[in-house]
Inverse folding.
C-alpha cells in the first residue's frame, strides 16, 4: 500500500478495540463513537457487548483462535487498542484459560496485525502488576524499573511475556508505534474489578499490621488515557494511575466498611476458604498488593502522552464510594433468576 | 433527649452520651460525636478528630506521611528530648529553611531514636520548622506494624530513587550511611564511624544539587549497649542481627526502654554540591572525596561533643 503516511492524521482514524464487551471496553467504544476524530470504530470479542452501541462494527472472533487472523486479514485499521488482558480468571475459568487469553491471545492478535493494512498505532491496556509489590521497593516505580524484582506470580509472568511480544513486534515494524500502558487497578461505579469487589464486601479482610500505600485510576481516566494514547502515541511503556496514593485502611474507612485483620501466614487459606461460599478468591497478585502496596510515577503520562488524570487516587475512591456501584450481578443462564425486581 | 441533671464529671457525661447514641442504633463514629458534647473543649476536639479518622477523614501525602499521626507521637518524643536524654542541639540554623537538603548522621541501634530526636530538634528550634523524611533499612519494611508506623512518621525505604524524588520535591532527607554496619555496632565501637558504603548519598546530592548537612549525634550510641549477638535468633527472625544488651532480651519488652544517656546533636554547616553539576555524579573520585570529607566532619564533631558532654549518663 503506498499509504501517504506522513505524520499523524488529525481526523478520520479507523480504530479496532479488542475485548470490546468488557465493561471498560464498552465504555471506550462509546467514547470513541462520540468523537468525530474517529471515522470508524470496530470491536472484537467472543460475545456482543451487553449495552447497545451506535456505529460500532462488531466482529465476533476469539483472539485465542487462529481464525482471528482470517477475520482481520485485509481489514484497514490505523489504530488497535488491545483491551483483552484478564487481571483475574472469570468465575469458573481455570488459571490456565486466563493465561491462554492473555498470552496466546496477544500472540494471535499480533500475528493478525501483520495482515492489517495501514496499522500505525497499537495501544495495550497492560498492567502495572509487572512491577510487583515489594516491601522495600522504590515508592514510585518509573517505567525503567519493570525488571527490578523477579516476576513472582503467574499473572506477572504473563504480563512480562505480553510486553516482550509487543516490544519484538515494534522492532520488526518501525512504522508502528506501540504504547504499553501499565495500569494501576481501576475503580469506578460502573466497573466490576477485583478492587471494587474487594471494597464492596461487608467485611474486608486485611493483613494484620499492614497498611500498604495503594494507587488507583478512575474508570473515566482509564478510558481517557487510552484515547489520549491513541491520539498521541508514545513508543514504549507508560504508567497510568491517579496522582497520589491512599493507605488501604483509609480507603476501607472511606468505603465505611469493617476490616477483618488476619495474620499474614493465615491470609491465603482464610480468604481462600470463601471459595466454597461462592466468594471469588483474591488473586496472588492482589494479595501481595494488600500486604506491600505499590505506586507508580506518572510523569511520562502527563508530559509525553499529555494526559493528566482528572481524579486523584483519593478522589477516585471517594467517587466510587459516593456514587455506589451500578454493577448488576451478571445474569446466570444456568439457573432461573429469582425475583429480578427484588433489587431496588 | 431530655437534658437530665448535669453529669458529675465530663468523662461520665461522655460515656452516657455515647451509650445513649449506641442504644439508638447509631454508628460508632457518630455515637462518639454525640457523646463529645459533654467534654471540655480540648478533649472535645481530640475526640472529634479521632472519630473523623475512623471515617477516613485524614490526609496522607503520596509517601504515606501522616502529619496528624506524627503530631500525636510528639508529646512522647518531647518527653524523651527534654527529660530522658536532656538533648542539647547546636547549629540548627545550618539546616536550610527551604529546598531539598540531605542530613547525614551517625547511627547505632535498630530503633530510629536518633532520627526522631533530630526531628524534634528541627521542629522546636528551627525558625522554619519542617518534618525531615528518613531512609530506613529494608528489613523494617517487611515487619507488621513497624512498617506502618515508619511510613506514617515520614520514613521511606532506603532506595536512591526515593531519596532523589524527595529531594526534588524540596524535602529534608535524613540518611545514615553507616547502614547495617552501623545498626550492629558493638558498644566498644561506639562513635567510631563505620565505612560510608559506596558514597551513594553523595551521588543523590550531586544529582539533585541538594546541599549535604553533616550531623553528629552524641548519646544515641549508649542507649542500647550491645555486648553480644545471637546469630541463630537473627537467622530465625530474618533480622540483620539480634542484639544482646544488659537488659535485652533478659527483661523482655522492658529491654526496649533506652538508657537515659545525655545527648548532644550538632548540625554542621552545609556542603554545597550544586557547583559540581549533575554530571559529576558519575565521577567516582569526587564521590569518595566528598563522602570522606563528610565522614571526617562527623567524626571530628563526635569527638568534640563527647569531650564537651563529659560523663555519659549524669
Amino acid at each position: 500500500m503506498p499509504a501517504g503516511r506522513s505524520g499523524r492524521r488529525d481526523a478520520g482514524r479507523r480504530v479496532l478495540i479488542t475485548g470490546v464487551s468488557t465493561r471498560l471496553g464498552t465504555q471506550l467504544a462509546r467514547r470513541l463513537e462520540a468523537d468525530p476524530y474517529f471515522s470508524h470504530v470496530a470491536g472484537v470479542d467472543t460475545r456482543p457487548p451487553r449495552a447497545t452501541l451506535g456505529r460500532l462494527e462488531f466482529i465476533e472472533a476469539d483472539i485465542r483462535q487462529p481464525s482471528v487472523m482470517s477475520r482481520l486479514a485485509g481489514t484497514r485499521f490505523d489504530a488497535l487498542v488491545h483491551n483483552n488482558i484478564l487481571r483475574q480468571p472469570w468465575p469458573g475459568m481455570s488459571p490456565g484459560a486466563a493465561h491462554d487469553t492473555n498470552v496466546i491471545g496477544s500472540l494471535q492478535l499480533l500475528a493478525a496485525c501483520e495482515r492489517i493494512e495501514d496499522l500505525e498505532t497499537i495501544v495495550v491496556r497492560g498492567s502495572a502488576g509487572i512491577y510487583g509489590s515489594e516491601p522495600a521497593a522504590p515508592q514510585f516505580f518509573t517505567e525503567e524499573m519493570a525488571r527490578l524484582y523477579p516476576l513472582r506470580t503467574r499473572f506477572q509472568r504473563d504480563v512480562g511475556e505480553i510486553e516482550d511480544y509487543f516490544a519484538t513486534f515494534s522492532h520488526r515494524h518501525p512504522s508502528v508505534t506501540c504504547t504499553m500502558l501499565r495500569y494501576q487497578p481501576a475503580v469506578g461505579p460502573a466497573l466490576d474489578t477485583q478492587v471494587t469487589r474487594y471494597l464492596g464486601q461487608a467485611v474486608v479482610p486485611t493483613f494484620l499490621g499492614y497498611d500498604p500505600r495503594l494507587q488507583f485510576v478512575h474508570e473515566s481516566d482509564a478510558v481517557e488515557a487510552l484515547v489520549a494514547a491513541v491520539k498521541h502515541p508514545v513508543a514504549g511503556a507508560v504508567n497510568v494511575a491517579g496522582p497520589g496514593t491512599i493507605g488501604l485502611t483509609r480507603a476501607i474507612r472511606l468505603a465505611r466498611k469493617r476490616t477483618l485483620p488476619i495474620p499474614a501466614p493465615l491470609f491465603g487459606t482464610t480468604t481462600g476458604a470463601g471459595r466454597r461460599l461462592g466468594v471469588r478468591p483474591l488473586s496472588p497478585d492482589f494479595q501481595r498488593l494488600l500486604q506491600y502496596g505499590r505506586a507508580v510515577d506518572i510523569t511520562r503520562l502527563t508530559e509525553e502522552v499529555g494526559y493528566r488524570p482528572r481524579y486523584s487516587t483519593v478522589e477516585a475512591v471517594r467517587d466510587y464510594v459516593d456514587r455506589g456501584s451500578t454493577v448488576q450481578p451478571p445474569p446466570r443462564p444456568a439457573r432461573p433468576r429469582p425475583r429480578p425486581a427484588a433489587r431496588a | 433527649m431530655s437534658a437530665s441533671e448535669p453529669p458529675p464529671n465530663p468523662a461520665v457525661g461522655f460515656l452516657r452520651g455515647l451509650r445513649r447514641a449506641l442504644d439508638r442504633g447509631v454508628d460508632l463514629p457518630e455515637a462518639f460525636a454525640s457523646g463529645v458534647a459533654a467534654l471540655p473543649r480540648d478533649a472535645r476536639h481530640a475526640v472529634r478528630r479521632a472519630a473523623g479518622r475512623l471515617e477516613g477523614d485524614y490526609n496522607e501525602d503520596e509517601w504515606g506521611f501522616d502529619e496528624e499521626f506524627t503530631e500525636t507521637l510528639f508529646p512522647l518524643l518531647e518527653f524523651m528530648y527534654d527529660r530522658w536524654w536532656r538533648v542539647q542541639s547546636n547549629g540548627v540554623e545550618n539546616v536550610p529553611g527551604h529546598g531539598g537538603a540531605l542530613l547525614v548522621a551517625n547511627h547505632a541501634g535498630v530503633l530510629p531514636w536518633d532520627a526522631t530526636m533530630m526531628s524534634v530538634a528541627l521542629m522546636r528550634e528551627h525558625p522554619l520548622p519542617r518534618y525531615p523524611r528518613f531512609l530506613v533499612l529494608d528489613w523494617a519494611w517487611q515487619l507488621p506494624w513497624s512498617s506502618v508506623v515508619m511510613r506514617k512518621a515520614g520514613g521511606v525505604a532506603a532506595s536512591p530513587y526515593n531519596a532523589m524524588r524527595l529531594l526534588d520535591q524540596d524535602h529534608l532527607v535524613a540518611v545514615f550511611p553507616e547502614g547495617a554496619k552501623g545498626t550492629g555496632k558493638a558498644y566498644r565501637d561506639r562513635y567510631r564511624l563505620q565505612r560510608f558504603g559506596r558514597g551513594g548519598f553523595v551521588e543523590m546530592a550531586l544529582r539533585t544539587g541538594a546541599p549535604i548537612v553533616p550531623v553528629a549525634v552524641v548519646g544515641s550510641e549508649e542507649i542500647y549497649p550491645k555486648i553480644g549477638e545471637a546469630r541463630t535468633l537473627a537467622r530465625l527472625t530474618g533480622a540483620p542481627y539480634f542484639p544482646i544488651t544488659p537488659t535485652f532480651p533478659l527483661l523482655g519488652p522492658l529491654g526496649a526502654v533506652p538508657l537515659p544517656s545525655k545527648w548532644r546533636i550538632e548540625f554542621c554547616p552545609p556542603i554545597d554540591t550544586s557547583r559540581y553539576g549533575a554530571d559529576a555524579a558519575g565521577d567516582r573520585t569526587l564521590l569518595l572525596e566528598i563522602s570522606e570529607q563528610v565522614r571526617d566532619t562527623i567524626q571530628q564533631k563526635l569527638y568534640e561533643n563527647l569531650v564537651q558532654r563529659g560523663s555519659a549518663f549524669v
Q: What stands out?
A: The first strand of chain A starts at residue 13 and ends at 18. The interface with chain B takes residues 135-140, 142, 145, 207-211, 213, 243-247, 249-256, 264, 292, 295, 297 of chain A (CB under 8 Å). Residues 95-113 of chain A form the longest helix (19 residues).
